[in-house]
Amino acid sequence: MGNVKIIKAEVCSGDECIKDIAREMSSKKIRRFYVVNDKKELEGVVTTVDLIKVIVDNKDSTKVKVRDIMTKKIKYIDLDGSVEDALEIMNELKTFVCPVVDKGKFVGIVSYQDIIQGVVSESRK
Amino acid sequence: MSLGSKMANLEDKLDSGNETLLHKAVRKAREYLGNGPTREDMLISLKKDLRTHFEGVDEVERARRYSKLEAYVDGAIAKYDDNLKGIGRKIVGRGSMGTAFANDIYSLYSKAPFMNFSAASYVLFGAKTLAEVPAVVRYMAKSHDWYGLLKFAVMKPINYLIPILGPAIESGSFERMVKTRARYEAKDRFLEMVGAETGKEKMKRIVKKPFRDLVDSVKPHGMPSGQPAYAF
Question: Are B214 and A83 in contact (CB under 8 A)?
């Protein structure tokens, strides 16, 4: 066991209307919601940028569903994959956080800094 | 000086058992505050880290290993010596952090609104950061110490926000990063010399492990306290 912490992330269903999501993002001060299905499988991610696009396109936010605007086929870290793969994915995505999946089910998110720190502290053991 | 007395000298100097509590406290504090560990501090902490490599060998070999360790530490310090100099950076760094520290103390004493004194600190921190840029670029070209840089950069905004203690921690942070690297390189060379797994080799082995081995639990934790929620 190492010391990298998986952080709980906000999730929603693809059928939710984006006005509700925007309200939640505003009250919780978060930038993204991970979209999961009934089996907890990761379907996509919806971010504040996606919400801005809805405003720019003058769409009715009460009628647009998360599924219509979310980014599909997102990359994620598999708990059974190697640490090297995880770092490669984060480098490729140029992001500081990445979703984590265990046996196909969404678990949470992990930060780049935490992974690097985890690798370094393991090497010092 | 005979080999025996040379070894006794070295052992005396390096033996953590001979270290007073006060010295130990000062050595530990130097890792987080001020200019970082001295050469002697590095030798003491390295001897602790590498103690298994000094056990089970004859006296001659032990003396050879001690002197090799000393030589590696000296070599690593010499390698980064010019990075640690930089008069301009030191004057701006010390001056700005000293002023920021004094400003924070005065503001607390005079009960000035937080925004007033934090604004002055931001300017002083900004000046220090700008003065450090050329030194950091030169250091990175030589060391490729991405982990050190990441830690150095991540800690900067946090130190910006902490009144009083922030400037104290930030002062000398560059020197601490460089000395941590020098210590790491000396340790790696020593491990290579004794035929043990070096830090680099260990790192390569760790990144091949499954990610599951690196996490503390599959059950997710709540948002870390003090972490701005929007960062995620």
Answer: yes
